[in-house]
Task: structure prediction
Amino acid sequence: MSSVIPVRLSIKARELPNTEGIFRSPDPYAIIKIQHGEDDVEELGSTEVIKNTMDPTWVTTFTFNFQLGKASSILIRIFDKESSGEDKPMGGTLFSVGKILGSRGNSLAKKMKGGGVVYAHIEKEVGEGKLMLQLRGLKLKNVEDSGFFSKSDPFFEIAKQSTEAEDVWVLAYRSEHVKNNLNPLWNSKKLELSAICSGDVQAPLKISVFDHEGSGDHIPIGTLTTTVSELILAKRFGGGGDKGNDAGKLDLVDDDGGFAGSIAVLQAQLVGLPKKDKPPKPEPKPEDEPEEEVEDEPEPEPEPEPEEESEIVLEEMAPPRPTFVDYISGGCQISLYFGIDYTGSNGDPREPGTLHYLHPDGSHNDYEKAIFGVGSILADYDLDKQFPVWGFGAKFGGVDGIVQHAFQVGVDAEADGVDDVLEKYRSFFGLAGFTMSRPTDITKVMKIAANRAKRMQEEKAADGSMTYSILLIITDGAVSDIDATKAMFDEIEDYPISVVIVGVGDEDFSDMQFLEDCGNATFVELNACGGSERKLAEETLKKIPDQLVTYFLDKQGINPPSPIASAEDEIEFDEEEIDLTGWDNDSSSSSSSSSSSSSSSSSD
Result:
């Protein structure tokens, strides 16, 4: 399974600062960029402009590839669209992709320094293909109250039903508005199935029609509930709402339950779906069977195939294999543990050049690089940020003490965040009677961590939730007893835990190649990553998503729960302050049309 998972970002904002003064509201749009590391910045595109509002919910979404080991950030800058001159900056903020995915409902909110709140939500990209759709309204209810001859300016929205709550609808598309017309013909659009129905043509959709108001306070006309498959059938058998044929009409209902007009389906077809497997070629004729002689003729050049309508499958289709994002979206928590090698082969930590030497300038040694590089990414998926830290390979009570192969690092049973892990690691060398010894035995730490992981998952399962643990072991050499280590990996093979081992220093780690045959193990040498924390994290975490899915789905038969939905007032706030100084200000002149990596729609 690939470690790269396509995901979709949607955003909205509330209580934006009014850059237009007292008498009117701004016309906000947002420009979205994704950042990997310090210099790798890519613009995903921009949202549509929504007129006269300080509370925009943009329907344009942005697709990008998520990889657990990559520390990625979403940069959002919001502007007020001006009819002439430069657009006015309204504020900006930055989200960690990991923090969004690790938060309840995969949603996170941040306050902007100049005022306003931005909400970001990420979900897995599901389904292939697109829906070619064109609708028109028929005899819509006139809710315009500005005069006897005035008519409504209708537009429609499509919302998909939340998988967690039937009464929660997620806006997926908004059409343009047609002025002064109760029989509006809206433009044909090609809509991604992943955006409007998460790839499920039987999933409920809500179509809502509104009368567009320049103030932004649009007046509801009516709603209906349908599905993609029903829209297709309405077009196929209803004649698109032609006069005298009501089969293709879908009736709207107003807030009082009364008739509010109809929607005719002029176009509804699926395109771009995966083609069905072709039948196998016939077996060749036996050699003793004579074949007809035919003259060789050049094969004609194949004509380019037009974009054909895909056959709609009305029966339930087999779901795709779940991914790491599915389990995280369903509430699975990640628990992170640390195991640190304190054997004497690391060298005297007071001597520069040794592996545990603490640099006076604060730069990281190899152990600190592994702790921070891997830990800072996985911490986003651990709600309480409490991490057990164990050491191995040292004595207490001087040289006459007994070698301990699993001991608690620090006074407290758990470290409070990654920074506290680093602090506990550093302060441990000053303990009286602490002696770095040998051999390198990781089996005791593995056993303690695996038992803890199993116990935590059993407790979570009792209340309908789940957790998966990751043990990060950092060592300067190959293990002393390979057979005992293999046996321990066999023992914990069916436990809810992955063991990531990082080799530091210049030792020969060729004896660690046996780990390639251990299903829940990963081994990476820091030197092979050029000493880079970012590259180390990317390499060590590549296998984790597949290992998690294998444990729950293949070994336990547990499918991911439905994604958790959070109401707006339940979304967690990220209070971290972000300095956006230096982010280019060219964005203010960018067009409000989205790039190819976004799923765009017309503004209302």
Remarks:
- The chain has a mean pLDDT of 85.
